[in-house]
Design a protein that fits this description.
The chain has 119 residues and is an alpha+beta fold. It has a single domain, classed as OB fold (Dihydrolipoamide Acetyltransferase, E2P). The protein contains four helices and nine strands, in the order βββαβββββααβα. The strands form two sheets. It has a six-stranded antiparallel sheet with strand order 1-2-3-9-8-5. The protein has a three-stranded antiparallel sheet with strand order 4-6-7, with no helix packed on it. The longest helix has 8 residues.
Length: 119
């Protein structure tokens, strides 16, 4: 898994990245009550706004950490945003992307670097 400084995570398997918000990012937002996901088929570049989350505290944008085409969204999270409050780094994945350039992953943080940034 790779991480961004803005608390997104990406897990890549066979050229496809699954993307979500980290546990820390979710805790900072508080209870998430609304999720707006990107449309399947949309092409986004690394750093583009991809998701809008609304919590009891605030609204926040999530950015795609790698460039690519959206190939799936998590409909369960769209229907029940509370999944993000309890399982942000597994069942609470937000969308999947077909990577355009796997070398972009090298710019992201590994788990150790991400955890160090938080402390």
């Amino acid at each position: 898994m790779k991480y961004t400084e803005s608390h997104e995570w990406v897990n890549v398997t066979d050229g496809q990245g699954t993307i979500g918000i980290t546990s820390y990012g979710q805790e900072e937002l508080g209870d998430i009550v609304y999720v707006e996901l990107p449309a399947v088929g949309v092409e986004l570049k690394a750093g583009d706004e991809a998701v809008v989350l609304e919590s009891t505290k605030a609204a926040a944008d999530l950015y795609i950490p790698v460039s690519g085409k959206i190939v799936a969204v998590n409909e369960e999270v769209k229907q029940d945003p509370s999944i993000l409050n309890t399982h942000p780094e597994d069942q609470g994945w937000l969308f999947k992307v077909e990577l355009n350039d796997a070398t972009e992953l090298e710019k992201l943080l590994n788990e150790e670097s991400y955890r160090s940034m938080l402390s």
